[in-house]
UniProtKB/TrEMBL annotation:
Domain ABC transporter: 3-237
Record protein name field: Sulfate/molybdate ABC transporter ATP-binding protein
Regions that span the bilayer: none
Lineage: Bacteria, Bacillati, Bacillota, Bacilli, Bacillales
CDD domains in UniProt: ABC_CysA_sulfate_importer
Keyword vocabulary terms for this entry: ATP-binding, Cell membrane, Membrane, Nucleotide-binding, Sulfate transport, Translocase, Transport
Annotated source species: Lysinibacillus zambalensis
A GO molecular function held by the record: ATP binding
SUPFAM superfamilies given in the database record: MOP-like (SSF50331), P-loop containing nucleoside triphosphate hydrolases (SSF52540)
Domain of life from the UniProt record: Bacteria
Length: 356
């Protein structure tokens, strides 16, 4: 089922929660809505589900308008952050619920329901837990039950609102790998809301970055990470170093130093900020042209990655570089060393790129 969101706007009182949001999701896609708290992710999900009405705009499923359709008629499965399981029902009954409450005409037989529920419980690896109650399960197990329950009614669209938000990091990672697999097996068009960039980058086919009720960028995980279109997306998707200065004759002048930026087509003398990812900060032990002197202020070993904090004394600013263990060993860095850095890849933004 494809989903077409056309020019959707929504206000709560005078607050604009969604502003002219348009998005086309292909059948079978797994899309992440990523953005900070209050950016409108949940509101958009609720408008798609029919739990909230938009002020303007259209929601189409396979080309058919859903605006007048009740949530129940939209064939949508919903999984929330806080496992909305029925506490007084066993795992089996929770998963069976959506099938049992169907009108007699479309309700499967008792045996069919049993087979279906057990098949789903096997899928979520909880076949031995069917008689337990939600309070007898861990958080991760409860979320797996919630997913099995959402899938039981064979929805055409699966909407997940921070499904793993309340779980610890290890369980989250396990469940998202598992969500990806489930999605690859079933191909249900799925949209999941998260404010965790790593989760979005790890799981989604496409990422929709939201800010202040608007879409900032849509793209593959690699695209939004490698080619952020705005300072907001750069900041939100990973750590970044800023080189503040002004543009002059194809160079970004910052402090006493200059970086070549031949691709930037703007007037001279414009204020600008260069954005550089930590792994694009190149460290030299000797002063080569175009490098900036810095002092190693902190070294943090993170498994195969080494984070190096560098103090730029001319501007009294800190930079963060990320090295592989091998690069780090070759450089033989120690806290207090004076070294020289150069951005390998830098994206320059001018004031009009800053939306806030
Ligand atoms: N029913 C409502 N009444 C009034 N304001 C609302 C309502 N629902 C949401 N809002 C406001 O709309 C804005 C967007 O909320 P929304 O829940 O969509 O954001 P979000 O990106 O999902 O944030 P979070 O990650 O914190 O859940 C927020 O400022 C919120 O306070």
């Amino acid at each position: 089922m494809s989903i077409h969101i056309k020019n959707v706007s929504k206000k709560f009182g005078s607050f604009q929660a969604l502003e002219d949001v348009s998005l086309h999701i292909q059948s079978g896609e797994l899309v992440a809505l990523l953005g900070p708290s209050g950016s409108g992710k949940t509101s958009l999900l609720r408008v798609i589900a029919g739990l909230e009405t938009s002020d303007v705009g259209e929601i189409l499923f396979d080309g058919q308008s859903m605006i007048d359709r009740h949530p129940k008629e939209r064939n949508v499965g919903f999984v929330f952050q806080h496992y909305a399981l029925f506490r007084h029902m066993t795992v089996f009954d929770n998963v069976a619920y959506g099938l049992k409450v169907r009108p007699r005409k479309t309700r499967p037989s008792k045996l069919e329901i049993k087979n279906k529920v057990m098949e789903l419980l096997r899928l979520v690896k909880l076949e031995n837990f069917s008689d337990r109650y939600p309070t007898q399960l861990s958080g991760g197990q409860r979320q797996r039950v919630a997913l099995a329950r959402a899938l039981a009614v064979e929805p055409k669209v699966l909407l997940l609102d921070e499904p793993f938000g309340a779980l610890d990091a290890k369980v989250r990672k396990e469940l998202r790998r598992w969500l990806r697999k489930l999605h690859d097996d079933f191909h249900i068009t799925s949209i999941f809301v998260t404010h965790d960039q790593e989760e979005a980058l790890d799981v989604a086919d496409r990422i929709v970055v939201m800010n202040n009720g608007k879409i900032e960028q849509i793209g593959s995980p690699d695209d939004v990470y490698t080619n952020p279109k705005s300072p907001f997306v750069y900041d939100f998707l990973g750590n970044v170093n800023l080189f503040k200065g002004r543009l002059h004759n194809g160079k970004l002048l910052h402090g006493e130093f200059a970086i070549d930026v031949p691709d930037v087509q703007v007037h001279t003398e414009d204020h600008a900020v260069g954005y550089v990812r930590p792994h694009d900060i190149h460290i030299e032990k000797t002063n080569v042209s175009g490098t900036v002197p810095v002092k190693v202020s902190h070294i943090h070993l993170l498994g195969p990655i080494v984070q190096v904090e560098l103090h730029r004394e001319d501007m009294d600013e800190f930079l963060e570089a990320e090295l592989t263990k091998e690069q780090f060993t070759n450089l033989q860095l120690k806290v207090g060393d004076h070294v020289f850095v150069k951005p390998k890849q830098l994206k320059v933004f001018i004031p009009e790129d800053f939306s806030i």
